[in-house]
Amino acid sequence: MRRKEFSIEQEQEMITFLDQCSFGFLGTVSPEGEPRVTPLNFVYMDGCFYFHGSLAGEKMKQIRQHSTVSFTVAEEFSLIPSFFSDPELACPATSFFKSVMAAGHAELVQELDIKGKVLQRFMEKLQPQGGYVPIDAEDPRYKGSLKAVAVVRIVPDRMHAKFKFGQNLTPERFEHISGELNKRNEGRDQETAEMMQKYCPFHQM
User: Fold this and answer.
1) How far apart are CA 93 and CA 81, in angstroms?
2) Cα separation of 118 and 123, whole Å?
3) How far, rounded to the nearest angstrom, does the alpha carbon of residue 142 sit from its chain's CA centroid?
4) Fewer CB within 10 A of the terminal residue: the chain, N end or C end?
5) Do 49 and 153 touch, CB atoms closer than 8 A?
């Protein structure tokens, strides 16, 4: 059953999360009907996911056979041990995270100018410090590479974002877990406590 208290409806929240993440998981179906999940870098632009790679290869073959795909991006923030909530039972153990899941169809991008814009966005995302000539389809130094590389657009038919930060907890348990995270102060615990305050409905009143 989908927990509606974890759903994120604000589009900008989802876009910001996708802009901060560089890795996602592509779900395809082989010609034999077998599922496959491939981790890869991506960018999200104008409501679509993009990735690049060789014109040959298994995932390209699968996309040509079955264009219906899924794409998932997830980021774990903190593990929440059971003893934060119960001194004996294991049941309350969980994790707090953000995720976006999409289902749609994949298509090869043919236009060199769009390829250039997508790959330039990749560089801005993965190499923000610069140190390269910007990718432009009109630049003769890039035209050959743009023709040789495959750029794939995933057009979502459905998207769902889930940001889980204790929205289902009672106020008392919520404050206790938030306090325990600040007390433990390991990894992303403080950031997780801040996310709890941001997304908890009774803190938004």
Assistant:
1) 5
2) 9
3) 29
4) N
5) yes
